[in-house]
Amino acid sequence: MENVDIVINSLVSGVLLGGVLALAALGLSIVLGVMGLVNLAHGELLIAGGYLMVFVMQPLGLSSLLALPLVAVLMAALAWPLQRYMLQPLADKPPESAMMTTFGLSIVLQNVYIMLFHADTRSIQFGNGVSSIQIGPVGFGRIYLIGFVLSIVVILAVHFLISRTAFGRDLRASASDPVAAAVNGVDVRRVHGWTFALGAACAGVGGVLIGSIFAFTPISGATYLLNAFAIVVLGGLGNIFGTLVGGLLLGVLQSLGGLMLGDGYRDLVGLVLLLLMLALRPQGLLGRKGG
Amino acid sequence: MKRAFQGLRKSRLVAASAGLVLGLAAATACHAANEIVIGASLPLSGPLAGFGKYQQWGYQTAVDDANKAGGVTIDGKQYTFRLIVRDDKTDPNVAASNTETLISRDKALVMLGSCTPALVNAGALVAERKKVPLVTGCDPLGAFRSVRKWHYVWDIFFDEAELSEAVFKMMDDLGVKTDKTLALLHDNGPDGKVVGGQIWPALAKKYGYKIVQKTEFPVDNMQFTTAVSELKSKNPQVVLVDAITPQAVSIRKQMAAVGFVPKVLDMEKGAEPEQFAKAAGKLSDGVLVGAYWDPSFKYPGASQLSKRFEKETGLSVSQHIADSHAAANVMIDAIIAAKSLDRAQINKAIAKTDKVYVVGPVKFDQTNTSKLPIAMSQWQDGKPVIVWPRDLATGTYIQPK
Amino acid sequence: MQTQIKPAAHADAAACRTIAYSVVLLAVVGFPIVVPGALSSYGFEVGFRLLLLMTLAEAWNLLAGYGGLVSLGTASFFGAGGYMLMGLMNFAGLPVLPALLASAVAGAALAALVSPAVFRLKGLYFTVGTLALAEAIRLFMINTSYFGGATGWFAVVDPPSVQVLYLWAWVLFVFATIVLSLYVSSRLSIALKAVRDDEAAADQVGVRVFRVKLLAFMTASALMAMAGGLQAVKLGAIEPYGMFGISWSVDVLSVVIIGGIGLRAGPLVGTVFIVALSEWLADYPDVHLAITGLILIVVIRCAPQGLTGLAISLWRRRNGRRTQTGRADAAGAQSALERG
Fold this sequence. Notes:
Chain A is mostly helical.
């Protein structure tokens, strides 16, 4: 059995990483919860954030913290027309149509990335490089902590947005009963557009953090997509806090899996978890049945 | 319901026949009659895209130069060489089907290989089956030999047993002082398993190093938190890694994230291309990687080739341009020597190769391999520097920070 | 097996037509085997790919088109078949035919094994679940050295010539066509469509929902596994990335949706179109894939019955059929995507 140091370090890293993964999954959760859309292009939206950072922000010399809100805004701006012209027209069709459309979109995006940015491995130097923090026996990268804190901040902000603002109220109304919401004067189409844009913005920021901790290529999106699904299902669709809890839980469970079986099994742990949750408790740990 | 079925079946029949005809029409590609087509399937996208790019340049340059020198005259007819490259996207399935396409549709007379055992094997098996000569680099000889007894496929590269030993020899020769604790991290691909799973452990024992950690992971894994935590805790001073570029970058970053810096860090395979240095930034300083060529080596045309590459592409030179350039030249020379378009004759000519190319002396043994000597290269300030052996060194060894 | 829904005479006539057209189609595709020199070596290779993809597409159409079970897990069964075949050929010295049959069994068995879990997932969750399943199996195979790990297995026996492979692919395609035709003209397909359209209602009427879905699932998976086995024979070397790679699931889905999901001709039209497209754009693989994705998006939006549906409506418009029957036929031919 590994010594205590390694276990503690693994668990701490798992929690911190879990926060970042939760942010990465947030966009998927919101979109799924409010619009009932399974966005299979979510992984590519994550990567888009990474590429925006490498090719737009960094050449402009923007400091990383400043660049994040800009990435969010750009992602929202790019995503809104996608929803309006590609997904909105499918509103009266069954949900598979929208899902398959996002699937087609993911194929298109992957190859557009290859054509525009080539297949090179990229990584983001966030802030002033990778330095580490040491607290007693526990050591982790500053970027992990920054990522964790940023993720919590964004998640709280989104939660605030959804629970306290007018837009949030409209969003919740559209999610639980679109027909009733429309009758009450909510422009459901507009809400959907903004929701998708919000989801993409979160994905972009999550992608920047992931790209700073790891490395990415045009086809890395698929791996993170399934992780995101696991988190969303763990926490319950559209449940913001649930996503956070799901992320932290996945992070810790993956660390345990890594400790016991080796790092190669981390993703497998996530997938098995996803399958189990889907089969046994699809509403998630924090969700309500049918919610 | 029945009328719909009628329409369906008719359209099905028409569509299928039309499609088949279309496919056949597309299949008969026309090419010039006095051209010798050399085919190559390369990873131009996907995780190994870093290698594919250099190989393409090496192959193309060799072919262009041969054409400038007048091509080849066979039976009184003048032929030029034409290189056709297809992207195998780092997918062995695609490498196999590309090879078939190149041979059957593009009418390739001979083939040049891809990179890394999985891709090279996929294409080489097709070529071997069809009795089409294929010369390749970028495939460690041990992995190459272990697949089967080759007749039509030839490999010019280093032997992973030698490469694996280089870092140990270097530490001895240069007197790099460590407490002889060692960690091994390797992927579970064909060469990762051989180098990390068998050769390195045996060598560690031979040179008196204590293995405190041994971690194996799949090729597309990106999270190394557990492995890296273990490194931090066990604190080995020598760390040997065998993984592809995206993983090598991740591992290096995550090591730095937990504040772990070994005295000696060797990252085989992944740290080779320039992408690694670019993506890892300052973290690449001090990372060792086995090298089989450097522009400073005293082989014909070595430094000129490097300068030409940098001028034409604006990128930093990589050793893979030499390996691929030589492989293509071996093939071209064999065609010229055989004075024939018969594949069996060309194959015999390849077997008789005995010449010094830009990558070094090439002569094949009875396992169809030609071994390249090993040196150790280290990234310093984003540039590769040869640090061992002393007589080939272009810089001094530094420690990673 | 008297069907109470269609009048007997029409059923006979329809069956007769099916057989006639099937025979003609299979002859067209099969003649290169009989007439030497009809096809170049390269033509046989394209043909092999075409036939294999058609088989996969027919199987997927059964699941997703007729059954409403949109699966992204094709690769699981494809890979299972490939590994079963290679394992038996290498370690038990079996010849190709019994090994292929064993692959079919492997595919069906895997389907039966995961069905209790996977059928609990409804609608979109089923899709995500099958995707997760395929990925999980892939990761498992990569990490397990019993199956050769990431290196995989090399065939002990050399693959046969491409003409022979084409013949086998043709036989497999014939087999798949027969299976699908039998299925479509039997009561099972009606039961399956009932389950697809409204599971609760079907259950009420006495349809054994689980059994019906399971049979379709096992049939489709067996066919996919055999295709995987044939691919393994052709490659001569298999490993998890290629055999369980997501591209198989992606290609099959694209082909059927573009061709026309739920329509008998959909998979064939789609496969021919996609293969022709890939040959045309063979020198530009990124562009080819990007275009495929775009076509997929456009087809879903503008032509939910795919190219086949488009062809039918164009044909219909040309013949000026705007009768009551015509509209009912169109409704009858609607795909799962329309009916939801």
